[in-house]
Design brief:
two-stranded antiparallel ribbon; about 130 residues; about 35% helix; mainly alpha; 2 strands; 5 helices; extended
Length: about 130
């Protein structure tokens, strides 16, 4: 039997102390919102009648122009440019900024996280007003 004093717990699993910060070990795990299918079943409505706005989703889907562009693209089997250079150049021209000042991310939550990591020092006080992004 392992010495449990050398371990912390996350969601019932053991994690070696020192591997993660104590505040991580003491925190609550993220509880995602139910899927649209589960929500529809819970309230007794068809999925088509449900519009979820809590996860920054688009209830209408992509435009026909976007669908056509995606259907015509033939390079999905290659990794994209890790710097997103072409997209950043186009966006930089559009907003009139140097390309070095354009940051791409996998959604707003990642960009908010990156900004926080770049600007918040250990010990800084931060106000997070729920409901909000992670």
């Amino acid at each position: 039997m392992a010495d449990n004093t050398a371990f912390g717990q996350i969601d019932g699993g053991l994690v070696a102390r020192g591997l993660l910060r104590d505040t991580v070990l003491q925190g609550r795990s993220y509880q995602p919102q139910p899927s649209i299918e589960r929500l529809a079943a819970d309230v007794g409505l068809p999925v088509e009648r449900i519009v979820k706005l809590d996860q920054n989703e688009n209830p209408y889907g992509p435009s026909l122009r976007v669908q056509e562009a995606l259907a015509a693209y033939d390079r999905y089997h290659y990794y994209p440019d890790p710097e997103g250079r072409t997209a950043r150049e186009i966006l930089a021209r559009y907003v009139g900024m140097p390309v070095e000042r354009v940051l791409l991310g996998n959604g707003a939550a990642e960009l908010i996280d990156l900004i926080a990591l770049l600007t918040i020092e250990p010990g800084d006080q931060v106000i997070v007003a729920p409901p909000t992004f992670a």
